[in-house]
Automatic annotation (TrEMBL):
Source organism per UniProt: Novosphingobium kunmingense
One Pfam family from the record: Peptidase_M24
UniProt domain Peptidase M24 C-terminal: residue ranges: 545-605
CDD domains: APP (cd01085)
Lineage: Bacteria, Pseudomonadati, Pseudomonadota, Alphaproteobacteria, Sphingomonadales
Domain Creatinase N-terminal: 9-116
Record InterPro entries: Creatin/AminoP/Spt16_N, Creatinase/aminopeptidase-like, Creatinase_N, Pept_M24, Pept_M24B, Peptidase_M24_C, X-Pro_aminopeptidase_P
Location of the Peptidase M24 domain: 313-535
GO cellular component terms given for this protein: cytoplasm
Protein name, entry field: Xaa-Pro aminopeptidase
Membership in a protein family: Belongs to the peptidase M24B family.
UniProt GO molecular function: metal ion binding; metalloaminopeptidase activity
Keywords for the protein's UniProt record, in alphabetical order: Aminopeptidase, Hydrolase, Metal-binding, Protease
Length: 605
């Protein structure tokens, strides 16, 4: 019998824990690769609680339970998770370790799945529990899997070759880079656990995770330039074997732990941010010397080569035309009052599919009308879907996966009325323009070599802070090349709160988003997002190296929400230059009414 309510699932989990002699269990959104987005088989938190966000966790004790989310999901978690079953806890104001230490009884045994948690979390949480006389215990198998009767199986879709014409560098060259990195540090091997790291290193892609073109697998990279790929045998095609060649040994996924154990006496690099505790346990238990270092593929992957940069520009131009067609369609159809969040998202996907080159979306489209736009990571479904009302603000954050690039763009638009009388309020225009000013200030930033994203973050918030408002998410994340739409190590975000990646210096070739926002709970939300590429800047009389941003995303920004009087001359010049470039890139791809709409949307301020 299937358990169709979250209350029944929670009850079943508690019975399973009791049978295992456990007093509690923790459930992250994660998989064996510490992925941000995980396959259906690993959606344990959603199955147990109903929470559909991409970041969060839960802790279950015998008499109480809690779900932990950050500021992006404050509203969403309350809509999706039953408050009778789970307390809402806000991160980083609290942490799961603190909550467990405060609520677990003395002597409690709290279970965790060592294949779903990183070593830093295990160390921190274990120490917090130990201080309270409780214990963190690695389970044998996952208790949720024992009760989730219709759990999907991991994908067995074939892995695909990512050709050098898109990658810009052969897998052999990349493995040589990693080999040099290992040799320079006196190491024998490196564990590559992150799926996008495996994909980048071997120039392979897959369809095992929705929205991210990766194949479920692990790699052991060796100091002689060889590598071992651990992957389900059903996923291996003759093309993949030929592509990888003799220097990459293909092994079944079940061989991963035995091969880790075979590294006894060797010095092995493992990334504590990207490899699960079970990897450390296997190596240390076998007598290998584990050296904690950032995965050597991370920074190399983040700095795009010239082929990847050119591919990204091509993908952005193609995607921008689809966005323009959508915005034109929206301007005609939405004022009639017959569209909703789902119909708009479907239409936008259809315009992307008409390119003939779309592989997938790069994440689930955030199609947010009215108050839903105040949830930065709102996810529309049949239950939450609402009409897009004339005389309101509508926000759409979306992206596409193409073989030559990954896109991510947000536009916030005013939905007028058929009679043309519905106008945005003074507050709408003020907040939209302040977000725009922050977006422009970041787009125009010039900074010396060595500058980290955290040092630029306040530029995007300055105009909002002057009005006593802010937003509770980062300003910019890295973006992959036909890979993860969220890619490290670069990031533009506040340095406080221990956010990973904000200390990474920005280097030429890195791609980031530029996406300040404003959110008024229960009313409306605004975000303007383009992707930018770090590039060298020449300044007369400069002392040392300086960098700036090339804006990659070409799509009009809604002028009806702009208060021109709030813009400086430099900001108006940026707007006009940006829209002139948008017209140059997109006009050859449009025709008819859409082209005329674009002409008006790109006219100078």
């Amino acid at each position: 019998m299937l358990m169709n309510t979250h209350e029944a699932r929670l009850d079943a989990l508690r019975k399973e824990l009791k049978a295992r002699g456990l007093d509690g269990f923790v459930i992250p959104i994660s998989d064996e690769h510490m992925s941000e987005y995980v396959g259906a088989y690993a959606q344990r938190l959603a199955w147990l609680t109903g929470f559909g966000g991409s970041a969060g966790s839960a802790a279950v004790l015998a008499d109480r339970a809690a779900v932990f989310v950050d500021g992006r999901y404050t509203l969403q978690v309350r809509e999706q998770v039953d408050a009778r079953l789970f307390e809402y806890q806000s991160v980083p104001a609290t942490s799961m370790a603190e909550w467990l230490a405060a609520n677990a009884p003395a002597g409690a045994r709290i279970g965790y799945d060592a294949w779903l948690h990183g070593k830093p979390w295990v160390d921190q949480t274990g120490a917090a529990l130990k201080a309270k006389g409780a214990e963190l215990v690695a389970t044998k198998g996952n208790p949720i899997d024992a009760i989730w009767q219709d759990r999907p199986a991991p994908s067995l879709a074939p892995a695909m070759v990512h050709p050098t014409e898109h990658a810009g560098q052969s897998s052999e060259a990349k493995r040589s880079q990693v080999a040099e990195w290992l040799t320079a540090r006196g190491l024998d091997a490196a564990v590559v656990s992150a799926l996008d790291g495996v994909a980048w290193l071997l120039n392979i892609r897959g369809s095992d995770v929705d929205r991210t073109p990766v194949a479920l697998s692990f790699v052991l990279a060796h100091a002689d330039g060889t590598a071992e790929l651990f992957i389900a045998e059903e996923k291996v095609t003759p093309e993949l074997r030929a592509h990888l060649g003799n220097a990459v040994t293909i092994r079944p996924r079940e061989a991963f732990v035995p091969q880790l154990q075979a590294l006894a006496g060797k010095k092995v690099a493992v990334d504590p941010e990207r490899s699960v505790q079970a990897v450390f346990a296997a190596l240390e238990g076998a007598g290998a010397q584990v050296v904690e270092l950032t995965d050597p593929t991370v920074l190399a992957k983040a700095v795009k080569n010239e082929v990847e940069q050119a591919g990204q520009r091509a993908a952005q131009a193609r995607d921008g035309a689809a966005i323009a067609r959508f915005l034109h369609w929206l301007s005609v159809e939405a004022p009639k009052g017959r569209q909703d969040e789902l119909s708009a998202a479907a239409k936008l996907q259809a315009f992307r599919e008409e390119t003939g080159l779309l592989k997938d979306l790069s994440f689930d489209t955030i199609s947010a009308a009215g108050a839903h736009a105040a949830s930065p990571h709102y996810k529309v479904d049949e239950a939450s879907n609402i009409p897009i009302e004339p005389g309101s603000v509508y926000l759409v954050d979306s992206g596409g996966q193409y073989a030559d690039g990954t896109t991510d763009i947000t536009r916030t638009v005013w939905i007028g009325s058929e009679d043309g009388l519905a106008e945005p309020t003074t507050e709408h225009k003020d907040r939209f323009t302040r977000v725009l000013k922050g977006h422009i200030m970041l787009a125009l930033a010039v900074f010396p070599k060595g500058t980290a994203g955290s040092q630029l973050d306040s530029l995007a918030r300055y105009a909002l802070w002057q009005a006593g408002v802010d937003y509770a998410h980062g300003t910019g994340h890295g973006v992959g090349s036909f890979l993860s739409v969220h890619e490290g190590p670069q990031r533009i975000a506040k340095a406080a709160g221990g956010q990973a990646g904000t200390g990474q210096e920005l280097l030429p070739g890195m791609i980031l988003s530029n996406e300040p926002g404003y959110y008024k709970a229960g009313d409306f939300g605004i975000r303007t997002e383009n992707l930018v590429l770090v590039e060298p800047r020449e300044i007369a009389g400069q002392e040392g190296e300086y960098f700036g941003f090339e804006t990659l995303t070409p799509a009009p920004i809604d002028r009806s929400l702009v208060d021109d009087s709030m813009l400086t001359r430099d900001e108006v010049e940026w707007w006009n230059a940006y829209h002139a470039k948008v017209w140059q890139i997109l006009s050859p791809q449009l025709h008819g009414d859409a082209l005329e709409w674009l002409r008006g949307a790109c006219a100078p301020l």
